[in-house]
Amino acid sequence: MATEGPARRRIQVAEHPRLLKLKEIFNSKFGSIPKFYVRAPGRVNIIEQDMLIAVEPVKTHTLQLANTNPLYPDFSTSANNIQIDRTNPLWHNYFLCGFKGIQEHFGLSNLTGMNCLVDGNIPPSSGLSSSSALVCCAGLVTLTVLGMNLSKVELAEICAKSERYIGTEGGGMDQSISFLAEEGTAKLIEFSPLRATDVKLPSGAVFVIANSCVEMNKAATSHFNVRVMECRLAAKLLAKYKSLQWDKVLRLEEVQTELGISLEEMLLVTEDALHSEPYSPEEICKCLGISLEELRTQILSPNTQDVLIFKLYQRAKHVYSEAARVLQFKKICEEAPDNIVQLLGELMNQSHKSCRDMYECSCPELDQLVDICRKFGAPGSRLTGAGWGGCTVSIVPADKLPSFLANVQEAYYQRSNRSLAPEKQSLFVTKPGGGALVFLEA
Ligand code: ADP
Ligand code: MG
């Protein structure tokens, strides 16, 4: 239901090793015990790994953050003066995004303090959205401390918006699935209005995540935001070409909705309206009938001011064709033909090709890993998440799983001396898990 909030579950902490460990570390850190716990999952669109936070509201106005992983140092700040540092996106800034998002939503200026201990097992900067899991978890922590209620959809929208305080112009997919996920079913996420539809995955196959071990922090690099800007510019040029009011248009999907045509038709419009040679800022200005000054001040973001070439045709082609593949994937799942695994795999392969050649968000290691996965029995394999490193997801027939895992392990990880520490969870089967929720000790 659209109005439903995240679940609250009473549990015996002693029966859950990870929560028990968190409770003990919390106690040695803050000298007290947590009042409640919140978990929020990452994504592959299929989820298991999560972010877990133990929380104790306190009377002072101090927010104290600690992490079970010594790589992430303690942090403390006044709850009334939240500063998010975009120039150096240290871990606590992601927590502050969720915290600030909820605070602002309710128009609160005076927040109560809290002690929080964070424990995450999502491989970071690997396309499984550890960042959004942390933002969403912090948002739900803050909501719970305030004693307020919001629906999962509202929470997803607030957290999608507030993660942008870190400087990444993300959509809202990661935050949506973190709240709206349900155990046992994949979800198709659609926007305006935000909604999630069940997609039944084939029973004879599993999805395997493999980490390329190339990390890419999305807030510390500009690739991601350059792609967002290229899509925005492509949307404006397409809107102008079709005589729509282009200045308000921000997303490619809006052009399609405005025109009321299918994705396939939108791909034809893209062929007519855009050329495959890269656009210079000057040419974009000419197409839109604006000055360079207007382009810089009214359209380009701070970190895309100096970009000299924009590949508008390629980015638009990728986005519309990828959206079409998502719908085809759902349709194939519904029809469940005999060769379903083969067909879904083929779509995933097309998707990787488009990411690599048209969106240019792959990297040599990802391309190599995808090839290895296909060679050892995956009918389909692709990068997942933002790209430029991180993980692949492969569809593997269930009976081929043991040999697939052994062979990929050998071919990608052992042969190249890449670190395969168990905590990196570099190669694992994933199933659709549940969304964010609150645990209270029984
Ligand atoms: P992802 O693809 O995982 O979302 P991002 O580059 O967007 O990658 O975000 C990664 C950042 O999220 C890390 O650099 C770190 O600041 C934060 N992060 C991830 N996992 C944790 C964790 N367990 N504890 C604290 N911060 C984390
Ligand atoms: Mg992220």
Can you walk me through this structure?
The chain is of the alpha+beta class. Helix content is 43%, strand content 17%. The chain has helices at 17-30, 91-105, 130-146, 152-163, 173-180, 223-241, 252-259, 263-273, 281-288, 292-299, 312-335, 340-357, 364-375, 401-414; strands at residues 7-11, 36-41, 50-58, 62-67, 75-78, 113-120, 186-190, 195-199, 205-211, 380-383, 391-397, 427-430, 437-441. Strands 1-13-2-3-6-4-5 form a 7-stranded mixed beta sheet, sandwiched between helices. Strands 10-11-9-12 form a 4-stranded antiparallel beta sheet. Strands 7-8 form a two-stranded antiparallel ribbon. Helix 4 runs antiparallel to helix 5. The two termini are 27 Å apart. The mean pLDDT is 94. Adenosine-5'-diphosphate binds next to helix 2, strand 6 and helix 3.
